[in-house]
């Protein structure tokens, strides 16, 4: 190291970049020497964090699928009810309101199907952009 003349400031910088969440083996040995059992505890903690994250991801995916299935079932039931109502109105002589109700029922089914498909497309496209 060089000596700095009096009255001047010196600055030194160092940077250590890791791609892995684990320290290098030599550093891990130092930690193990200073605190016996550190390596086993560190790896155990890492393993439990990975398992926890995987459980959360599974819950999120399962919950999304369950909500989507319930929404489809509910929209189908509502479309059937409004379809029956539309036919009933047509049979009672209320043609305009009956046809409008039928068109609304068909439109709700189309919107539920194509809307969900379009949202999944947007989500996949966003994820593809993030991974690039």
Rounded mean pLDDT score: 84
Question: Can you count the helices?
Answer: 3
User: Percentage of helical residues?
Assistant: over 70%
- Report low-confidence residues grouped into runs of 5 or more: none
Q: What is the number of E strands?
A: 0
Gross morphology is elongated
Structural class: mainly alpha
**How would a textbook summarize the main sheet?**
none
Order of helices and strands: HHH
What's the short story on this structure?
This protein is mainly α. The chain is built from three helices and no strands.
What would you say this structure looks like, in words?
- By secondary structure, this protein is mostly helical.
- The protein has helices at 25-34, 38-91, 95-131.
- Helix 2 (38-91) packs antiparallel against helix 3.
- It is elongated.
- The model has no long low-confidence stretch (mean pLDDT 84).
């Amino acid at each position: 190291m060089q000596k700095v003349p009096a009255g001047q400031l010196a600055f030194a910088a160092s940077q250590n970049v890791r791609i892995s969440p684990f320290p290098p083996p030599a550093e891990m040995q130092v930690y193990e020497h200073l605190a016996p059992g550190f390596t086993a505890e560190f790896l155990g903690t890492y393993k439990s964090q990975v398992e926890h994250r995987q459980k959360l991801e599974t819950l999120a995916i399962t919950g999304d699928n369950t909500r989507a299935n319930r929404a489809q079932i509910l929209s189908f039931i509502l479309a059937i009810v409004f379809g029956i109502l539309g036919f009933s109105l047509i049979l009672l002589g209320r043609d305009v309101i009956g046809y409008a109700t039928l068109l609304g029922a068909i439109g709700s089914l189309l919107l539920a199907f194509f809307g969900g498909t379009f949202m999944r497309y947007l989500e996949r496209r966003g994820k593809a952009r993030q991974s690039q």
